[in-house]
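Task card 7
Instruction: Convert sequence to structure tokens.
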Amino acid sequence: MLIPAFEPGPRMSDLVAELLRADPDLDVLIVDDGSGPAFAPVFAAAREAGAHVIAHASNRGKGAALKTGFAHIAAHDPDADVVTADADGQHTRADVCRVADALRRDAADGRSALVLGVRGFDGAVPLRSRLGNAASRGLFRLATGRRVSDTQTGLRGIPSDRLAWALGIPGEGFEYEQRMLLRLGPDQLAAHEVPIDTVYLDHNAGSHFRPVRDSLRVLLPVLLFASSSLAAFVVDTVALLVLQALTGWLVPSIVAARVLSATANFAVNRRVVFRARGGSMLPQALRYGVLALALLASNIAWMSFLTDNGLALLPAKVVTEGVLFVLSYGVQRALVFPRTDAGPPARTPISRPDPPGAPDHPPHAAHPASDTSPLTPARSTS
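Output:
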């Protein structure tokens, strides 16, 4: 059980005590993300409750605290799966057990997948949290084409064979958890959801997450891509209108305008949006060229169809570009400018249930003192 904590409230030690009462063999690791001397009594209470606490000298962000915890677990207990939870009291013992049980079932089925504890956002949910989560879900679906019920959940299950993958994802703050979700598709990692309770204590006063502002920051690449695409759209549209007015030829004007805008768009996306300057430009340019040709063919087909059916040129252009926007982002992120810092995905899970002849009990996590925990299923490596 991994809890990143920055200036936590007194309920954190209660959660530790509840978990350890439910299972005395459970390991609980807390990373103090530079909370300072004023919060030393809270961490001391967590230690007294049975947690192990490690600390950053200064505040580095939630993502940095999670990765410090992952690195510690990978070094000291590499076969243990990890359940992450927030320190603000929103995740109950029952919630943690639901996610852990899902990890255990995955282990028994030989599956390696990220488990997400998702809230239903029903009942007395603060308005800023409801709006922030709705905006984050919508932007995430726009960026990836995938539906995730709760993109901001901190209650997650990480299989042991994915700790190295998690450590390779960039990000130091709240954006780290969102980037983890954004890497699911490109890295071919499955994920499934487990319903949990929606708990907001004192109107979520203990949370340091700012739903709207941090959601926008988390999805900055999408916003940058949208800005880049909008700029390319303006260049493309102006060039198209001018060329078509001068020549009267629709298809050649579309091609010439697209070549001009695509060249500028490639440079901006490579340097600013996806930050792929470290990769070789030629393969990226070739992949981008193939994508541009495919989008161009789609553009011509859609615009010819719409204009032939009576829609004016400018509205036809707007409709066509809107349809192709989401497709273009997903392909560029995954194929044209792929990140290489998270490592290649495992083709097959390296985890499996206990071999034949093992004791007749559900798989548990291996701990240094040969303890077992029902919250962290065992993983054996091949």
